[in-house]
Amino acid sequence: xxxxxxCLEKTQELLQEIRDVNQQAFLEAAVVIADKIGQGGxxxxxxxxxxxxxxxxxxxxxxxGLACFRGLFAPGNRMGDNIMLNEFEGYVxxxxxxxxxxxxDVLVICNAYGTTKMNIxxxxxxxxxxxxxxxxxxxEFPEHLPKDFRGRHSSGKNLHEEADIFxxxxxxxxxxxxxxxxxxxxVGPASTVLTTMGLNFLxxxxxxxxxxxxxxxxxxxxxxxxGGIDYNAKYLAQYLPLIPELSGFWTAAEKLGGLVx
Length: 261
Hints:
This protein has 261 residues and is of the alpha/beta class. The protein has 2 domains: 10-220, Glucose-6-phosphate isomerase like protein, domain 1 (Rossmann fold, 3-Layer(aba) Sandwich); 224-261, no CATH class. The chain is built from 10 helices and 7 strands. It has a 5-stranded parallel β-sheet, with helices on both faces. Strand 6 (176-178) and strand 7 (187-189) form a beta hairpin. Helix 3 packs parallel to helix 8. The N and C termini lie far apart (56 Å). The model has no long low-confidence stretch (mean pLDDT 91).
């Protein structure tokens, strides 16, 4: 089999597993998210450490996505930062304080491995504050790593066991998909694809749940298609008071006048 076929086949297999094993979890999470949207609220999303941060970007101000998702972004929580703060415990409460998370909020936590410091800090701090958590993560890393492994949280806890709802992203141990002859390390990381597709599976189930309730889903159109800017303007106006980061988009500036400088 061609190496590309092997990579594609394994990716398709894992995506099918995400769909098959999480049907009940997707429905339960969709109810929680739809309840919050129906109340006029927003959904927070956090990916603690390095590449996990891309999950927050995937759901924030994204064409075909919900305008009411607010990503939790912080210095040191992305690839390329000089200091990777995901190696430390105790930073997450500062992030939560900045974004004002509290009782009754809904937080989606995304991390393929489900053992790392910032993500366990996030689920622990969320519980302390009365925040409902939905985790997109896997189980293979927790199953393979000893409790005292250097990258683990000091509590030894696992994200999939601590969150209120767990959606399994099926990330394989070691992450990469394809083993090649004459090389000791597998190639082709899967975690970003699996996490983002898990999020988008959730997105379509949430949208269907909102429509079932007769609630207009605040889905954004692409600003680079005809009519996209006009279509999005009402959602930007609705959520700007709750998601101030939306003020940075030029699409808002054209339609909201004095609201956006």
